[in-house]
Design brief:
This protein is mainly beta and 123 residues long. It has one helix at 113-118, and strands at residues 2-4, 10-12, 28-29, 35-38, 43-46, 52-53, 59-60, 80-85, 90-95, 104-108, 120-121. The strands form five sheets. It has a three-stranded antiparallel sheet, with no helix packed on it. A two-stranded antiparallel ribbon has the order 1-2.
Length: 123
């Protein structure tokens, strides 16, 4: 479904095509649901799963929207030498300066309730 609410903004609710990218930070929601991102003034919804980490350690999508954790705060991963996101949306890092293999949970990606049953999957 495509909804146009002004001349420059469009909301597309149909799921896109999933494809393997090889990036540990590319994720997708299979089925209904949305990632919760920081919007202008209030949390917003997005299906973009092309994630990256900013210079200050914040997890963002390809539109540079900050992904929010279940506490509705931006997820900050800090300095790390390794990162992964579980199928449940848990973000874990291997912090710089830690023993090799040390995994620290830094947040869980907030999803709409419809997505909680679908879970967060890597394409």
């Amino acid at each position: 479904m495509l909804l146009r609410y002004d001349d420059t903004n469009v909301f597309e609710s149909d799921p896109g095509t999933l494809s393997q990218t090889g990036s540990k930070l590319d994720i997708a929601i299979r089925g209904d649901g949305y990632f919760v991102v920081k919007g202008p003034g209030a949390p917003s919804l997005s299906r973009r799963g092309d994630l990256s980490v900013t210079n200050d350690g914040t997890l963002v999508n390809g539109a540079q929207q900050q992904l929010l954790g279940e506490n509705l705060q931006p997820i900050n991963v800090g300095a790390y030498r390794g990162i992964d996101i579980t199928d449940e949306g848990v973000v874990r890092v291997e912090p710089l300066g830690s023993e090799p293999g040390t995994k620290v949970e830094v947040g869980k990606i907030a999803l709409t309730s419809a997505a909680l049953t679908s879970s967060c999957k890597k394409p």
